[in-house]
Amino acid sequence: MKRRQPLPRLWLMTDERQGDGLWRALERLPRGAGIVFRHYALPRRERAALFAKVRRIAAARGLTLIVAGAPLPGGGGTHGRAGRGLRTASVHNLRELKAAERAGADLVFLSPVYPTRSHPGARPLGPRRFALIAHQAKVPVIALGGMDAAKARSLGGAYGWAGIDAWSA
Q1: pLDDT in tens, 15-59
Q2: Model-level pTM?
Q3: Listed residue (102, 111, 95) closest to 36, CA to CA
Q4: Checking phi first, is residue 147 left (phi over 0); if not, alpha (psi -120 to 50) or beta?
Q5: SS3 content of the chain, % helix, strand, coil (to 5)
Q6: Which of 6, 15, 109, 115 is most buried by its number of CB atoms within 10 A?
Q7: What integer best gives the mean pLDDT of the chain?
Q8: What single DSSP character describes residue 136?
Q9: What's the longest Cα–Cα distance across the chain?
Q10: What's the pLDDT tens digit per position in 63-93?
């Protein structure tokens, strides 16, 4: 699939722990940014209703919206599984990066770069290991894990960055 617009460089990963902070995060995203809608733990109907609200906001604000987990109608792509539209994947090392590329990912989220509340106790890659892996990618690499704009500016090999708390705070 040939894209007419560039891939987003800034991303929001949605998460149940955001609560009402989700709406603040969506307001803070600049036009052209992306959203990976997760909210895995919600019951199916509740998840679909929340997704519909996020989809309306994304469409009005010119944001790319993709769906992780169980499919939902109206997303512009999929995260972590095969599907239509933009395909993204989460990766944590070079082996997973290469597997995602072979599977057809258009973009990958490489994490965790720094310590993060989403994965307490996980060993972060750090800027050096992140750059070593990202420079071997054939697809754009988005930095994820403890990220914010300041950290992203000093990170080699990143096409962009994603966060949860950075957008919600």
Answers
A1: 898 999 999 999 999 999 999 999 999 999 999 999 999 999 999
A2: 0.94
A3: 111
A4: beta
A5: 35, 20, 45
A6: 109
A7: 93
A8: T
A9: 43
A10: 999 999 999 988 899 999 888 899 999 999 9
Q: Tokens 């050096």 belong to which residue?
A: 128
Task: Extract the tokens encoding 116.
Answer: 């993060």
Residue 159 and residue 141 in contact, taking contact as beta carbons nearer than 8 Å: yes
Residue 107 backbone phi and psi in degrees, to 5 = -160, 145
pLDDT recorded at residue 168: 85
Strand partners for 37: 67
Nearest to 81 by CA among 66, 64, 92: 66
Buried b (16+ CB within 10 A) or exposed e, 137-168: bebbbbbbbbbeeebbeebebbbbbbbbbbbb
Residue carrying structure tokens 């509340």: 117
27 within 8 A of 63, measured Cβ to Cβ? no
What's the DSSP call for residue 7?
P
The single residue listed with the structure tokens 């460089």 is 9
Which single residue is written with the structure tokens 């944001």?
63
